[in-house]
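>> received
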Amino acid sequence: MPTTKSAAKRLRQSETRRAQNRSIKRSLSTYIRRVNEAVAAGDIAKSEAEFRLVGKKIDQAAAKRVLHANTAARTKSRISARIKRLKQAASA
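>> returned
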């Protein structure tokens, strides 16, 4: 339990921010799952459309410091690589 007024305020602020960050991270995982499902189904057009959306959402989360910048870049890179492999498999 916080003993000072400032500590109590910090606790309230951190609880609010934690709830917001958890919401953002949860929605990100949903967007990422949609891309992965589209890739697994072999749907190039849908996976690219979903990737544009998830890329924007990941960048927004990194800008708000919900995700570390390197984590955001790594995630986008891995998703992009999956889509690239899907395209190469489809063209071969």
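>> The CA atoms of residues 6 and 41 lie 52 Å apart.
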